[in-house]
Amino acid sequence: MLKSSPFESVHRQLDARFGEYAGWSLPADFGDPKAESHAIHELCAVVDLSSFGRIYLKGGSTKDILNGVFQQKSGSFAEDSWVWAKGVFDGDQVLCRVLRLNGDFVVLTHPEKTQK
To answer: What pLDDT shows up at residue 12?
Structure first.
């Protein structure tokens, strides 16, 4: 059985077309991918990340540890911002999103990489 987001009923009300991704039933699109892309890049959009793994980190040396774990980053771990970060775990490259907020960090892993 596929896992589903707590927001599935909201997605259905918005006429989402669903697909399977890494054991999850997730919205594939809402009928007009071009308009969705425009909203994300030019307006305002909400993205459901329920299927992503989360790791919460805090403490004085956390930034140094993350810099050691992730060999490639799309930027620095600046306060109140996201960066893409790539690390290698058990020989597998894992791409994550890392948020720094109030000095603490949240690492989001893609659904198929939550065990890494």
So the answer is: 95
